[in-house]
Amino acid sequence: MTESEGGRMQFEEDDHRAAFVFSNLRAEDAAAKHSSRPAKRRKVARPDAPKPQAVAEAEASFPPLFDGAESPDAVRLRKELFETSWPIVEDGIQHVLREANRTTLDEVTSFLQRAAEAKTGKIAAGFIITGPNIASQDLLFEQLAETLSAATQASFVRLRAADAPNLKAALKKIIRDATTGRSEDGDGMDAEGRKYLDYDLEGLLAFLAQHQLPLRVIVSFQDSEAFESGLLSDLIALFHSWRDRIQFDVLFGIATSVELFEARLLKSTARQLYGAQFDVVQADSVLESVIKSAVAGTRATLRIGPSLLRSLVERQQGQAAGVQAFISSLKYAYMCHFYANPLSVLLAGDDRLQPTLLQPEHIEAVRTLDSFQSHVEAAVEARQLNHAQSLIEDDQYLATQILRQAQKRQAYLLHLLRSLHLVQCTGLSTASFVELYISALSGGIDIEQASGTVPLEDAIKRLNPGDFLSLVGRLLSAVRTGSSELGLRGWEAEAEELVGALGELRDEVEGLVERSKSNGATLKSKYSAQSRILRTTVVAQKVQLSRDTATLTEEDKAYTKAVDTLLELASQALHCDPIESLFLHEAWVFDSKAPYRDVFVPAPGATFDRALSRPQDYLACACCSKANGGLASTLPTTAILYHLYTEAGALINVADLWSAYYALVGDESDVGLDERSALVCFYRGLAELRMMGFVKQSRKKADHVAKLKWL
Amino acid sequence: MVRRKLAIEAPEPRVSRKRELPNDPYEVPDEADTPKRRRRRLEPKSTVHSGINGEIDWDNDDVGERSAVVQESPTKRRGRPPKSAATATPNGQTATPSTRGQRIFAETPLKPRPDGIDTPSRRTIADRSARKKSARALIDRVIGGAVSDDEVEEDIAREIYESSANEEEDAEEDEQGDQDEGQHPTTPSKSPGRKRRAHPRKRSPTPPRELPPHEQYFYQNKPGLAKTSNNTLSTLDLLTHDEYFSVLRQLQDPHAADVDFLQSLHAQSFPQWAFELSQGFSTCLYGYGSKRRLLHNFATYLSSQHPTHRIVIINGYVRTLTARDILSTLATALPSSPASSNSTNSGGGGAPHPSSTVGALLTHLSSTPITLTILINSIDGPPLRKPALQSLLSHLAAHPQIRLACTADTPDFPLLWDAGQRAAFNFLFHDCTTFAAFAPCELEVVDEVHELLGRRARRAGGKEGVVFVLRSLPENARALFRLLAGEVLVAMDEQGGAAAAAGGEEVGVEYRMVYNRAVEEFICSSEMAFRTLLKE
């Protein structure tokens, strides 16, 4: 209302236009005039030259933090860190996604090639079960298009239901895509001086023949469920009738099942298809490999904290949000961290993180961290008082400590990943990698049975010799090869002790097995033998239960000892602290759920409800704060009406609404609007309620409106 | 708090009296129980009191009421059918001072109350048996004096009992409010109102508070509940457009400063939004209030940051917006390309199909290094709600060189997109509640309200209206209109600043001159025809 009339008049014309190109000139003009008096609009022809911008970089830099006290170098470093770290992760993800579809692609390609040779007289149809998420299909079909057009030289057309509402539109789209995709000189329609209609397949034939392309077109229906069944039947029948001239192959992306899809087609149509079914890798396993590569792997610079990661994974499973959504969330976490956390500069390597870069503000910020506090407390408890005191008082000392943390971080992460990898390789844990990873981050790794996060103790104890040997073998090979998914290289050289001990164990147990075999007994340990044998004896009509302390042979005892040794080795190798116990973990762990939730899972209903029922939360004005969520005459009109609206029933009498409103703001109240002004406000509020979809016209009674929203 | 004490006292004599009734098979005469029960009643009562509207009535009437209770209830008690005694008591008590009681006076007191059936509140019917049982369990326990070895069971029994007692109190309270109103026996004018109160639970005057939204929906949509008054706005002079705008101009918004401050707060996030846009996300600003200014300022900010970027603003609230508008504007934003965009269009012969134009546009865009930013006001505006347009926009947004930011005005905007479009848009949502008033271009207030009231159809004005009227006219009349409009414009120009300064003095054109011009241009042949045309 009171926004300056001058400023508004400037935009008036544009505001009524449906779409227009925003010109910087006018805006600057307006801004200039905004301060001065609202003069007539000058008709300046063109700006002489765009202002020589100091920030003529490709993208604007991050705003400096610490209330603007952050040095430009630090700001630039944060930006560079983001720009270098995310693409690595993204490349990894893209690679994973492409690999995930590889087998499907190969199968489809070979099927189409076989079908072409088979000469069945039918249309080859590939049914690709993509699962319910249509958002992740795009990549698959893009890859299909690449691979198939490379392998078969055929034209590939992607159809979506939205592109093809009817037969004519579908044909147009097919022909257009098949013709423009291949050559640049577009207008091949009238080669013999004859002009084809743009939905005439004759034209396509002529075009293909003229360009000496293979007379073969692959049409893919990405979301086949969304197509009208009549349209599908028509298209298939048409393709079939054209078979002698152009060879059509079809691919269907199916979210449900082939049976359901077939039920929608005419029987006669279905008989013209010669199909095969292909399954795409399930979203769960794709997600797991993405997490392995992008979140857990060594390539990831920023760690996603356990609680955020858990909520992301739950959202994937609970809402079928699609891998794309997960990747976006991941990217947003990176963006948030480097954009808003000044300590993210600590992630830079040694070569770029100069001690001079650390400002007093950085040091001060470090001192406020939780992990700093617990680190100092731990130092005090360990009687390292000097260390603790210098940490608190000596900036220089703290700076060197901070710089030293980078190595500790690397070492920790490496150890964590190796432990996890080994746990996975034992095959004894039933939890998936993602669960393991999350629990390891939040609670560390501990294989103790009673209290540990990964209770493997019992499982190791109960191993029989065969499993024992294979387990040791798996561990050895895991140490040797590492994991490519996680980006782990083999670490045989660094873990000589472990490898040596494991090797000895293996030799020993092998020997034991040999010996017991020659003795004719099976090798067992006291853990596996004991509990099983329970002897029942009947003595004088009474049943006596007695535990059989089965006599263990020498070999058995030796084997028991071997199992114990393995357990000890494992508990040493598979041990890790929770991520939060590390000093300065805030600098490289992002675990805040709030920005993610606000930005990806909006709650517009709650937002509107809050704005209208408690406007002081936003306006922070003194007059409405008194109302404290109640009704007050000073609230904005729409908020008052909204209060009355929530109190009213499903049908609202506008006359009563008006009198209630007028009683509140009218002459007698402290706002004291006269009737016409109050009516103007009332009109505006009511119109806004309607625009937001809260009320609609009701024909039940005169001057009544129906309620539409229960927020 | 005298009032509260009285309320507590009232049930007491009745509770003990009820115990004396030997007819009720469920009632166990036991004095030991009553104090406990009373105590329990006390708590809910006091809480209920504070929240209920009928409180004031209580204050006015409680003295009279109490005496009525004390005096009347014994006589009525006798006549009560024994079966309903247990459940009807709380209501019976409150009913006593009502007019109904007076009616009974005339009859023999021994007669069973005719309306005794409707006293149990509907809500409590379902709980009745459970409540009785739990009451009995509690009483048994007290009688037996046995140490209960099943504490849990007792707890459950107590809980059931108390919760239903609570509700009954609640119901009782409601009715009391009702009946206190009707209790002024001195005013005979209230009598029609009294009759209606025969079924007090039918329309609860105080809706239950603090219900979750879905419960509220079902509560408010209960059949028969929608009772509104018959008042209409007939006495009120509805606003006209002129009056609306003239009054509006004089109105001052007391919150203007706060709204501006809120805008400036949002404006601080501009760098963040720009960063998000640059990373391939689209931003969607939602929340109450007009976000047109905010988006405009954002456009200004963007263009100051990246002078080379092209920015296109699309106003979703303009009702005539079509896909073609969007595409043609986008095409003009790009440096002209005779090769791709135009030739394919003309090659098609007829009207270019939007989807083909999009393809051409995007391929053209890919060939240039330009970054195009699309800002959309009201992406949930009526013209943009069509699925085709949304899929067009999502298609555009998915292009790496196009950045898209939009605003949404309704709470339902997430329903616009399916999973595929949502992925293509790659939205980040920001709460941008501005509280700014919607400008006339976004919201035609008077029309909206009148349409809502079913008073008048949309104003025929605006461009569409004029076009519609002109199209229906014969060609000569149209030509005459053009001529007339031209003449008026010329006359305005001639009088120029003088007229404007005089405050919009009517500009006139000479009749004779217009006629002559019309004849010159062969619009009409005779003065007679000229007049007819002019009338049109």
Describe this structure in words.
The complex is a heterodimer of chains A (711) and B (536). Chain A has 711 residues and is α/β, with parallel strands linked by helices. Chain A contains 29 helices and 13 strands. In chain A, the strands form 4 sheets. A 5-stranded parallel beta sheet of chain A has the order 3-4-5-2-6, sandwiched between helices. In chain A, strands 11-13-12 form a 3-stranded antiparallel beta sheet. Chain A has a two-stranded parallel sheet with strand order 7-10. Mean pLDDT of chain A is 79; it is low at 1-11, 27-58 and 183-191. Chain B folds into 3 domains: 2-220, no CATH class; 256-344 and 354-431, Rossmann fold, CATH 3.40.50.300; 473-535, no CATH class. Helix content of chain B is 58%, strand content 5%. Chains A and B meet through helix 1, strand 1, helix 2, helix 5 and helix 12 of A and helix 11, helix 12, helix 13, helix 14 and helix 15 of B. Strand 1 (19-22) of chain A pairs antiparallel with strand 2 (310-315) of chain B, so a sheet runs across the interface.
